[in-house]
Predict the structure.
Amino acid sequence: MSNLRFLTSGESHGKCLNAIIEGVPSGFRIDEDFINKELKRRQVGYGRGKRMQIESDTCEIKSGVRLGLTTGAPICLEIKNKDFENWKIPMSTKELDLKNREILKLVAEKSFTKVRPGHADFAGAIKYQLEDLRDVLERSSARSTAIEVAVGAISKQILKEFAIIGFSHVTQIGIVKAEVLPQSYTLLKEAAEHSDVRCADDVAADMMRVEIDKAKSEGNTLGGKFEVIFGNMPVGLGSHVHWDRKLDGKIAQAVMSIPAVKAVEIGVGIEAAEISGSKMHDEVFIADGKIYRKTNNAGGIEGGMTNGEPIVVKAVMKAIPTMRKPLKTVDLYKKEQTEAHFERSDTCAVAACAVVAEARIACVLAEAFLEKFGGDSLKEIKKNYEK
């Protein structure tokens, strides 16, 4: 049984972002170009900020893959931060001579003590007893999701060997909701991939761009809602026997912990509150020995386990809390009322958040898949899967 897990490190303006993935069996084909395409998907989108113009993320596989195939050893990934060239002094890992006025000036220019409401600044500074909020911002920044998308790309390539494919699409930005969507997952995916707001409803997409432009002109930001779908799921991933092994719980935790996500739904989600039992639960039918369902309100998960239907996850992203028109706050050093610190930011990043959610869910599914069908090599896993 494989124990797939990963750890990441790195700061927003530090030297690089890293990940070590443990538990990937041998024999899986890993395409570095695919990882970089996934990283590009995270960076594009209407409403993104100037950071996306500075960084053009590429991932380098440092170990664990030889001649394009996994070896069973831990996989190390690295994404260099190109903007680090402008932050070498203030983000130095070495102790600096702060008596040097030039060095002190460069460090002070990037330090701040004005709390940004909605960020980790206040709680992080109190918890870790930090005087400079830069020490909180750098790790709590959504920049960390870049390396998570790279890890997700590895997970997606594991799942792809068994034809398990996922995608995402945006259903709402601000007050604008998608109303007319393609009925097939194939058309839905294609339409979303060709939209700079990842919305498959062309009319709604145009209105979303207008809302984003309006927010930008006002120095404001926008949130929204998106949906992630993974198809061709086998029955029985996850478990009903313990609360912490239920797959929907693991998926919810993985998506909920993405910066700015405030709600996660499985299947019909919150609509279940107003649907009667006779209409809510997906009836089971059989024809020619094949068991099937006509609906998927459960979102592919019953009792904490996959039931063979596509997994459907919805999530809500709040408006980004860093705004050009700052909110009222407190300076933790001066202990006085002021306005929030402004750091370069996006106006709307719902489309990017959807891609990050894809990656997080892929990691959870890959872990669950290897737990059920696991072995030390792809050949062994395929034998277990085909039994």
Notes: The two ends are 16 Å apart (CA to CA). The mean pLDDT is 95.
